[in-house]
Specification:
Elements (H helix, E strand, L loop, with lengths): L13 H11 L1 E6 L7 E4 L7 E6 L4 H21 L8 H17 L4 H12 L9 H8 L18 E4 L3 E4 L3 E2 L2 E6 L5 E5 L4 E4 L1
């Protein structure tokens, strides 16, 4: 694992992440900021190993927790394949185990540690749906006051990528069914998408 990752994580996390890379054999890609997701996992195929990508604009604590979330997907995939639901019981069990490991190794700020302990009692599909955890992580963002889709109310209007105007609808797993106001067409938009609220 390249030492370049130290730019994105707390220093104390390097040892445990090195173990994860060695045990689980995956390629990590630091992605340009994506408006629709923070990270993702793609299983191996004949040509490539398991791949995990994490947005490079996350603060070091948010990056680490997002990476932990995706490594839990990898472990779940290795054990159960398609038999396990993406954020089902098996994933939650693996995610909790990994979070316990990083809590033992990393000195998190008090507010994040408290939020993580609470988060572990009932893990959610993304950090953005756990507002207590999300708010504690955001305290360490370089740029404050970002707004993401899961933070606005159903029925509110918003701009995506500063251009297209939508109305927020019902949650479908990790995405909201939204209506583009110009065309009236429905779109599934990830709950972690950065948006601008409009009237």
């Amino acid at each position: 694992m390249s030492s370049k990752i130290l730019k994105y994580i707390p220093n104390e996390a390097l040892e445990i992440l090195t173990q994860w890379f060695w045990l689980h054999k995956f390629h990590l890609k630091i992605s340009k900021p994506r408006r629709t997701k923070l990270g993702d996992f793609r299983p191996s195929n004949n040509q490539q190993p398991h791949r995990i990508s994490i947005n490079g604009d996350l603060n070091k604590y948010h990056f680490l927790i997002t990476l932990t979330h995706e490594v839990a997907h990898l472990i779940t995939w290795n054990r159960f394949g398609k038999k396990a639901l993406p954020h089902g019981k098996e994933w939650k069990e693996n995610y909790i185990i990994l979070l316990e490991e990083i809590l033992q190794q990393v000195e998190f700020p008090v507010e994040i540690k408290e939020a993580l302990v609470k988060h572990m009692a009932k893990p959610k599909a993304t950090s953005c749906t756990d507002t207590y955890l999300l708010n504690s992580l955001r305290l360490y963002d370089e740029i404050q006051n970002k707004l993401i889709l899961c933070e606005i109310k159903e029925g509110d209007c918003f701009l995506l990528q500063g251009k297209r105007k939508f109305k927020k609808g019902k949650l479908r797993r990790t995405r909201y069914l939204c209506t583009e106001l110009t065309s009236g067409k429905p779109y599934l938009i990830h709950q972690a998408a950065e948006v601008v609220k409009c009237s």
